[in-house]
């Protein structure tokens, strides 16, 4: 698969996630946490704002339990400008306290996978993600959405590691989230 094809596939999978989940609730449901604690595996979607303060997307993290959220983002210290958006940069996996993260970022919504998440598998994948060298971050091929869905692991209605019954290669992270 070519670089351009991989980037396009990754971008489409991210867009599909936001259309089918954040807006239609196909595999996840929005939950209100007012007065309640989140469950391990809940996805926290934080608003991404442009430099002018306009909403331009969302950053996704996974609630791990014990008041912690794990998330993946990129740090590009060498280059700035529009070309920085199109390339890979250093990937950073971090765990932060839920409350401090909510103070530093604007929470848009919390999504919970329909059918639940295997808490033992989630804990294992979180530990592995924290111990491993993170992959390079790329805004369309390897981003916070791809990372979060891989942490959740396969579910009854969504298997982020397979496309149309075929395993995903290590270079492709497309998700089959099409709306019927």
Descriptive report:
- With about 180 residues, the chain is α+β, with helices and mostly antiparallel strands.
- The chain has one domain (about 5-165): endopeptidase domain like (from Nostoc punctiforme) (endopeptidase fold (from Nostoc punctiforme)), CATH 3.90.1720.
- The chain has 5 helices and 8 strands.
- It has a 6-stranded antiparallel beta sheet with strand order 1-6-2-3-4-5. A two-stranded antiparallel sheet has the order 7-8.
- It is globular, with a radius of gyration of 16 Å.
- About 30% of the residues are buried.
Task: Tag the structure with descriptive keywords.
disordered C terminus, alpha+beta, six-stranded antiparallel beta sheet, globular, 180 residues, endopeptidase fold (from Nostoc punctiforme), 5 helices, two-stranded antiparallel sheet
């Amino acid at each position: 698969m070519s670089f351009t094809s991989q980037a396009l596939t990754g971008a489409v999978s991210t867009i599909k996630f936001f259309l089918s989940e954040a807006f239609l609730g196909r595999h996840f449901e929005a939950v209100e946490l007012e007065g309640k604690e989140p469950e391990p595996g809940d996805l926290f979607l934080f608003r991404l704002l442009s430099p002018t303060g306009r909403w331009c997307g969302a950053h996704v993290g996974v609630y791990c339990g014990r008041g912690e959220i794990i998330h993946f983002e990129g740090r590009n210290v060498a280059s700035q400008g529009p070309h920085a958006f199109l390339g890979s940069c250093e990937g950073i996996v971090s765990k932060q306290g839920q409350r401090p993260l909510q103070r530093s970022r604007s929470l848009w919504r919390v999504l919970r996978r329909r059918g639940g998440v295997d808490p033992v598998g989630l804990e294992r994948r979180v530990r592995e993600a924290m111990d491993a060298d993170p992959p390079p971050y790329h805004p369309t091929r390897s981003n916070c959405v791809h990372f979060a869905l891989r942490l959740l692991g396969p579910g009854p209605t969504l298997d982020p590691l397979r496309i149309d019954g075929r395993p995903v290669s290590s270079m492709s992270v497309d998700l089959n989230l099409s709306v019927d």
